[in-house]
Prior knowledge:
Elements: H1 2-32, E1 70-71, E2 77-80, E3 86-90, E4 93-96, E5 132-136, H2 146-156, E6 167-169, E7 179-181, H3 190-194, E8 203-205, E9 212-214, H4 224-227, E10 236-239, E11 244-247, H5 256-260, E12 266-270, E13 279-280, E14 283-284
Antiparallel strand pairs: 1-2, 2-3, 3-4, 5-12, 6-7, 8-9, 10-11, 13-14
Amino acid sequence: MSEEKTGNTRRDFLKKAAPLTGAAIFSGAALVGCTGPAGITGPTGSPGPQGEAGSDGSKWHTGSGAPAATVGSDGDLYLNTDDGSVWQKANSTWKEVDNITGPKGDKGDKGDAASGGGTNLNLPMSVPPSKGVLVVDKELCFGCGVCTLACSLANEGVGSMELGRIQKIGHNNYTFDAYVEPCMQCVDPQCMRVCPTGGTGALKVDPVTGARVIDEKFCVGCQKCIQHCIYDPPRIFYNKTTKKAFKCDLCGGDPACVKACPSGALKYYTNPDGVNTGFTPLGLGIGGA
């Protein structure tokens, strides 16, 4: 009897202990858990804007507001920046245009090496004189501004006092005289001398009228021509929208300002042999005052 009782007691213990052991094992597995799936990688952010030009001008910013380079008559690229500086790209390298140098000198009689040219505003320009010039009778001009509007309409297609190539000298509280001052088509044009695109680039001579004209396709907007105009105020102007210089071109020989002047103060004087006006090698010519 004792052995049977003992056997029954052992069987009962195993029956009761088995569920508890399974539960403990199951519980341990549940505590560990399964690893979930990896999360989805988010989208890549948009790249930031490209930086401005470096100090060497080798990298320029892009976009709608970026300045556009202009091809000069020498085939190099020219680029003007908002601070007024001009950069030239030659042999794949950008450099700032500081000084304008003249042609290299001739070789000396003793076989000496030719000297390098330099900017010399005292030497006359070798260009033919203009065959015509605008002349103003200041006694008849009363500063109405009709000529300025007629000029801008003929050349720019809009009536604008700022875009006229003939401008009025303003008056003040003490001097009530007001009259216009056109370009004098100088015999020795300093504007052509300092233009970084050369005498056959942005500033050239019109083959028909002899007028000193600006070809805006080659203009780099450096404003050196304006700075070196010998007149005050200068007779060359700057278009802030196109960033190009512009001046009187005599309308191809039929000036719109002369035809529009209501008082007859403006005249177009011509001479087939050329006119001695503006700045000359000997100083100021006719109309230089």
